[in-house]
Design goal:
There is one protein chain. By secondary structure, this protein is mostly helical. It folds into two domains: 62 residues, Multidrug-efflux Transporter Regulator, Chain: A, Domain 2 (Orthogonal Bundle); 326 residues, Citrate Synthase, domain 1 (Orthogonal Bundle). It is built from 20 helices and eight strands. A three-stranded antiparallel beta sheet has the order 1-3-2. The chain has a three-stranded antiparallel beta sheet with strand order 4-5-6. A two-stranded antiparallel sheet has the order 7-8. Helix 10 runs antiparallel to helix 20, helix 13 packs antiparallel against helix 14 and helix 16 packs parallel to helix 18. The longest helix has 20 residues. The protein is globular and about 80 Å long.
Length: 396
Amino acid sequence: MPAETASLYLSAAEAAAFLGVSRSTLYVYVSRKLIRSEAMPGDRSHRYWRADVERIKRGPKSTVVASLEDRLASESRLTLLTRGGQFYRGFDAIELSRHASFEEVVLLLWEGEPGLFDEAFVADPVSARFLKQMTGWSAVDQALSLFPIIERADPRSYDLSPAGTMRTGARVLRWFARLVGGNHHNPHLPLHEYLAKERHAPTGFEQVIRALLVLNADHELDSSTYAVRAVANSGVPPYKAVMAGLISSEGQRFMRERIGPVRRLLHEILKAREPEKIIHNRLRAGEYLPGFSASGHYHADPRAFEIMDALERWNGSDRELLRLKRAALVATDSAQLTMDFVVAASFIGYKLGMHGEELNLIRLSKMAGWIAHAMEQYRSGSPVHGRARYVGRLPG
């Protein structure tokens, strides 16, 4: 055996002595798959992978290599998740959703100064020309195609200082709001009012939109935010960081296993004269109810209840809202399942006529958190380099 390969292994005696344990304890580590071993050719003895033994020696915290996720956001000052809801920099998100504008919450997350959104938004001619070629595209596809063009046309977008990132971030939010609104007019109102106007929302519905945007502005390190922090770690500007979040939110696994089934069940409920039967039939057949679960923030997601209360305040007698409430009541009574936030948010998108794109309001709101996380990553110091724990075939 080459000396280089032999040095990667220890004998049983060497491994036990290095750890200061008996051979029987060494074999326990092997049986628990904490130390890998293999039989010596032509011999009944085994050899032990040195790196695994050294990792055990370093202590419990080193038995598994720290994940990139932990290293990307081992500390964050943005959002605290608790049983009762979430807190943005110490402020109760549910309480904020009852009175604060989305822009005020953005300033809270970004630690920005009032006036950040005062500058008039103007779409440059280059972007407007490209938009004409994207008629019929989804808002996400438009954004993914348009953002690199906007970034390139605006040298200020490469300023990664806190002030520069906030300036670019405000423009990102307003651009995506324009795409979600239908790309007819530049945003000139608070975004919840702008979207209500552009989507021809019923009277009073703008307050429901505002609550949704506030409640979903950040949700700690979910999969899309993780993607944003991972690319921000390399120093990409805000447009590209947000694009990473958008791409993650469009993943086939996420759409197939989560959003697609939720959307189909929601449409079944809203079209049924007796929505209770939709739930009963699924439960009777042993099928799961997408968008209903026994856990959220460790249990029922309080954001879903708050959105339903906002919808109740808007128009508790709305026929489709009543159907959704009846279905949710049956799910709770029959199977102790509560509605997830994604169902209530999808219902809002449905009421705004965003069929097939109901999640775009969620994406818009999450951009506030994505940019806040990118800012934290920009300030975190040297880039983080992830390591994988190799579990394949050992050399030799």
